[in-house]
Amino acid sequence: MAIESIIETDSESAFIQEMEKTRDALPSRIDANPENVEKGLAKLVLTLVELIRKLLEKQAMRRIESGSLSDEEIEKIGLTLLKLENKMKELKNVFGLRDEELNINLGPLGDLI
Amino acid sequence: MKIYAYGIVDSHNRLEEPIAGLEGKGIYNVFYRDIAVTVSELNEETKEMTDTGILEHEKVVERLMINFTVLPMRFLTVFNTKEDVLSMVEFYYEDFKNNLEKLRNKIEFGIKVIWPADTIKKRIIDAYHKTIRVSIPAESPEKIFVEEKFKKYTIDKEFQEEANRCITVVDDYFNKIAVEKRLKKLQTENLLLNAGYLLEKERQNDFKQAFEQLKNAPGDLRFLFSGPWPCYNFVTLTKKSVADDYFNTEGILDRLLKP
Q: Which of the 8 DSSP states describes residue A97?
């Protein structure tokens, strides 16, 4: 090559494997057609719900970590998070979506979740 | 005929020698004031291109780099007419000038680092069981659920912190040599770091030496070093339009590294 690029590694197959994974996570184009528009919309909505659920969960864990919650409050949070997670599982099943599909690539900002 | 674009160059001169582009078509410059877009013609029928095309695109950009400062464009950037090319370059002219100035005599190097994620996670889990900082009495399903969530949260947090510490160690080798960097952390659990470093051309030997030192340092990290490359990761546009995507070259180096 004109500027003589070098590629050097002693673990070629390991890097190929990891780079394939990152490529798989970023679809090159949105698959939108009349047959799957409902699933596409559900994917978008559920991704946002999942983001909010994860934020709630993280906030709850931070509060537990800081020791600011009583036993009763922890139990109440547990019940809320459990119900939310179960409802999400149910909705994912209805629309045939897997966990890893619930994400949006924001370009240079990385993945939403 | 459509027009295929390779990049923006800081020249208002014609190319001195013929360079073959995609589909074997000769490349030429479309001028706007004191800069130009380097293009070649493309058959109307061409709809898809394989990774062979990306190598040809890269070869043209590298060839241009010998004589010019280049803002590389995304693989498969196609315009319908010469007027479309000119209207794009007119819109971004100031941005292009600023980027050409920033990238003059610069090159890009890539460093990827794999770490043993499983071993590190196991070590963190073992440490978690030895020193549980918050005790949640698990006498109901709700509390058992919270306890599991809390364990996962603590382990993930420690995993992220360990990744940050490790990235700082790696980055320290190159930080003083590079003028700008793009660090992507944990794109997968094992891919600790995917970094792009922008540096002055004359400092490339310093960069290579720093990599040799890093490679020989004790530890169980594995590395992939690549470069010099055209500055794919360092073109930043301040004006916004649909054409921003023409310079979204993220991931192009990963595609070029594919064997």
A: -
Query: What range does the domain containing A44 cover?
Result: 38-98
Counted domains in chain A: 1
Establish if A7 belongs to a structural domain: no
Could A78 and B187 be called an inter-chain contact, meaning their C-beta atoms sit closer than 8 Å?
no
Q: Is residue A79 part of a domain?
A: yes
Is the predicted ipTM greater than 0.95, yes or no?
A: no
pTM to 2 decimal places? 0.81
From residue B138, give the alpha-carbon distance in Å to each of B100, B145, B188, B253. Answer: 61, 8, 33, 49
Per-residue pLDDT reduced to its tens digit, A59-104: 999 999 998 888 888 889 889 999 999 999 999 998 888 887 887 7
Chain B residues 62-81 with a CB less than 8 Å from chain A: 62-63, 65-66
Q: For the segment B176-220, what is each residue's pLDDT rounded down to a tens digit?
A: 999 999 999 999 999 999 999 999 999 999 999 999 999 999 989
- What distances in angstroms separate CA B20 from CA A90, B43, B245, one per listed residue? 56, 15, 25
Residue A50 covered by a domain? yes
Residue B136: its chain A contacts at CB < 8 A? 64, 74
- Contacts of residue B257, Cβ cutoff 8 Å, sequence gap at least 6: A7, A15, A19, B110, B224, B226
Instruction: Find residues 130-159 of chain B whose CB sits inside 8 Å of chain A.
Output: 133-134, 136-137, 140-143, 145-146, 149-150, 153-154
Whether the link from the prior residue into B228 is cis, omega within 30° of 0, is yes
Residue ranges covered by each domain of chain B: 2-104, 109-229
Q: A2 vs B63: CB contact, 8 Å cut-off? A: yes
Q: Could you tell me if residue A74 is inside a domain?
A: yes
